[in-house]
Amino acid sequence: MSCWFILSALLSVYNKYIFGKKYFNFQFPLFMTSVNMLWHFLFSYFALDVLHLISEVNTSTQSWKSYLFYIIPCSVSAGLDIGLSNTSLKFISLTFYTMVKSSSPIFVLGFSFLFKLERVSIKLIIIIFVISIGVLLTVLAESEFDSLGFVLVIISTCLGGLRWCLTQILVQPVSRHSMHPLIAMRSLSPSMFITLLVVSLISEGPSTIFGSEYFTSFENFLLTLGIGLVQGIISFIMVLSEVKLLSLTSSVTLTIGGILKEMMMILISTLIFQDKLGPLNIVGFCITIMGILCFNIFRYLQAKRTEHDGDIMEMTINNGQSGTS
């Protein structure tokens, strides 16, 4: 969890610096993100097929049903989630980005209900409503509101909910589609790369990309390559830690674990990028955090109740066996 927390915060700051108009201002975030997915594939391939880090794990390919219904949808949603998130940083502050991204439990829970990873309950619906109110107040209070940036980040957040629920299905041991996190990354990365590259070439244009100042000289090309490589290394380790956490917990638990990260990101944004917070921004964010904390308490009590019921069942079985002996 600590590895994911640190790298996630570092990547957010790094991406804002790369894509923000006031900073490095790299104008092709979708293209850069597609290249990162290619790095992810190469890193995971190297770890699996060259270093044989998990040789004891079955690395055979998945069935066509897994690819069609899980791997490809997960890859497309993950690629667009990351690509649109990075693109939104061109238009909105890191603080506003972080606040809107904190609405992810709404979409994670929604897709968890859809895929029957969570049971629908009145308490969860109320929690989703509270988080929605907090995000709405945050958006309404934003003094430098950019509609395009907001649409991009809210779509990416929705896709992120779908992404993590599908990833949970792919990597958790109890799932019949389960695979090792490194194998999941190797399987997902090619589709993510192709998805982002196609979207990039359509929206950003190949002539515009390769005719830009980032590729006109060998020195600029090396600089661009180096920036992308650093971003690729950070994001690879971060995503690997995310997938590993999902294999041990759940998509909702990972989302809740980001509470402290979101609060820390806002502090970092105000210190590094001089982002401004209004009173209504703070109120909205606090309401959002309150909703997420309520869910955390709900899940804790639910887990305790399940554990207690399991202990009672085990005692009943043991007593029954003792009575028949």
Automatic annotation (TrEMBL):
Domain Sugar phosphate transporter: 2-296
This protein's record includes keyword Ion transport: no
Entry keyword set: Membrane, Transmembrane, Transmembrane helix
Cited InterPro entries: EmrE-like, Sugar_P_trans_dom, TPT_transporter
GO cellular component terms, semicolon-separated: membrane
Record localization: Membrane
Stated name of the protein: DUF250 domain-containing protein
